[in-house]
Amino acid sequence: MSPRLMVITDWRLPRERLLAALERAMEVGPQVAVQHRHPEATARQFLEEARLLSELCQARGNPLFVNGRLDVALLVRAHLHLPAGGLTPEDVRPHLSAECRVSVAVHDEQEARRARGADLALVSPVFPPGSKPDDTRPTLGPEGFRRLAAALPCPALALGGITPERASLLNGAAGFAVISAVLEAEDPTSATRALCTLP
């Protein structure tokens, strides 16, 4: 089953606040996945954080995706997310178990073509990202998202500035990926449920 919502970590938040928000989000059910992303971390720190998240997710039955690190994903028995411009699903499949899912980052048509073999794509930025106020990339908008989602060989999650109101505008979305919409919400459980229950 593909996740309905992917909550991406933001380790700039205090650790206790981040983990508490993730736990609250996972209360909604196994359709909520977590993606471990921490580009500033050392290799050792990234692994230790992945192990912590793996324990949280396994205890609750929620999927964990590790961003960009095949070695760490294998060590903690997590799924794998591939950033754009790096390894492809076809590169990593021979090293993964049959149960391991692979998600990919997609921003344009060229990256959509490279998604062959992926189980899931995170398409962005659909709207201006709330967690990246300095991001100057042009946004896809609902029509750009629909076009890329239609070109993909796998379900598409919309990422970038997602709120329940904006999410309702996105035809073709199998689900959504968020950072601040859940992690910085006053009530992460309610915020998660609102996004998971959209038609």
Report on this structure:
With 199 residues, the protein is α/β, with parallel strands linked by helices. The protein has a single domain, classed as TIM Barrel, CATH 3.20.20. It is built from nine helices and eight strands. It has an eight-stranded parallel barrel with strand order 1-2-3-4-5-6-7-8, surrounded by five helices. β7, α7 and β8 form a beta-alpha-beta unit. α1 packs across α9 and α2 crosses α3. The radius of gyration is 15 Å and the shape is globular.
**SSE arrangement, N to C:** EHEHEHEHEHEHEHEHH
Question: How large is the radius of gyration?
Answer: 15 Å
Which band does the percent of strand residues land in?
15-25%
Tell me the number of structural domains. 1
> Which regions are unreliable across 5 or more consecutive residues at pLDDT < 50?
none
Structural class by secondary-structure content: alpha/beta
Main sheet overview: 8 strands, parallel, barrel
Descriptive key words:
eight-stranded parallel beta barrel; 199 residues; 8 strands; alpha/beta; TIM Barrel; 37% helix
